[in-house]
Every structure is written in C-alpha cells, then in structure tokens.
Amino acid sequence: KRWRGACGRRVNSTLLRERERLLLPNPPHHKFHSHYLTIAMRLYLPVAPPSANRIWRVGRGITFISQEASAYYKEASLLWRERTPDEWKACSVSIWIVPVRRGIDCDNRIKPVLDAITKAGVWKDDSIVADVSIKLVKPNKKLYPRGATFVEILPVEEKYRDEKEVLLWTT
Fold first, then answer.
1. Among 43, 19, 1, which residue's Cα sits nearest to residue 153?
2. HSE of 14, CA atoms in CB hemisphere, 13 A
3. Which end of the chain is more exposed for a tag (fewer CB within 10 A), N or C?
4. Quick check: 95 and 135 in contact, CB under 8 A?
5. What is the rounded CA–CA span in Å between residue 103 and residue 130?
6. Residue 76: other Cβ atoms inside 10 A
7. Which residues, 6 or more positions from 45, have their beta carbon under 8 angstroms from its beta carbon?
C-alpha cells in the first residue's frame, strides 16, 4: 500500500520493512540474556532529522517549533507505533542517518531523533536513554533514499555504569 507521509514523500510500508531488515546490522552481543536481544526495536523513517540548530525559531518575540522540525515529528508519529515495554528501566539507542548532503554535523541530529521518538510515544521520556551512538551512512539508491533515519533501541541492565570504568579515565 502506498500513501504519502507528512513530508509529502510516497511511502511503501512493505518496502520499509524490507529495507529495515536488510540495512540494520544485527544487535551487538551484550552480557545480559539472549531473550533481551529478541525484543530490540528497529525504527525507520524516510526523512533525515533536522539539525538541533533548526528546531526552534523566534519571530515577533515568540519562540516556536520550525516547520521542518514539526514535519519530522509528524512523520515519526505516523510511522513509529511501537512502544517500549514498561519493564525497561534503561535503553541503548543506535542511530544511523543517510545524509541529504555532505558535511552535516552528526551530533546535532541526536536531539531531534530522541525528541521524535518521545513525541511518537515510543517511550514516555527520553530519560531512560543510557547510551546513544550515531553513525552516518553512505547513500544507496537501491535500498533507501537520501535523508533516511534508522534507529535501534536495546534494553540495558542499568542506566549508570560502574564507577570503576570512570576511575580508569581519571587516573
């Protein structure tokens, strides 16, 4: 079935699932039980996130969300219907972005993606995120368009790391 997303692009839901299956790598092996790996969430959005510098705009003394950001949030709300289980106390988020153009600053793309996940209702609040990683992916016309977002959410045992890891950095 084809339909138009909030940003006006034509979307084929079966192709989205196939692209998601082909493109996202297998979850990394963690020290916790294997049944956690089966409940990893994978989300796809055929639109690249706006820069964090372009989320908020000011006009006539009023601060508001830009059209670009609101269109991205609306698209995410339409496509991302999954919910994280309530027993997840913390999670790890991996983001892959196919940029529209070269030279984008990938650290400015983290907040819009996490905000879109929150606004879509995948989780109640992004305070459960313990670990975030982001990677830029080269465009591939056969599998996915320029400007796509792939997100994988995995549960983790604890939100805070062991202090021994931090002490290694400080000595």
1. 43
2. 2
3. C
4. yes
5. 28
6. 27
7. 72, 75, 76, 79, 80, 116, 148, 149, 150, 151
Instruction: Answer yes or no: are the C-beta atoms of 91 and 155 closer than 8 Å.
Output: yes
Residue type, 131: D
Contact call for residues 93 and 152 (beta carbons, < 8 A): yes
Return the amino acid letter for 60: R
Tens-digit pLDDT profile for residues 47-82: 889 988 889 999 889 999 999 999 999 988 888 877
CA-to-CA distance for 122 and 80, rounded, in angstroms?
7
Q: What is the pLDDT at residue 57?
A: 92
Backbone angles phi, psi at 69, to 5 degrees: -70, -40
In whole angstroms, what is the distance from residue 116 CA to residue 75 CA?
A: 9
- Contact yes or no for 110/165 (Cβ under 8 A): no
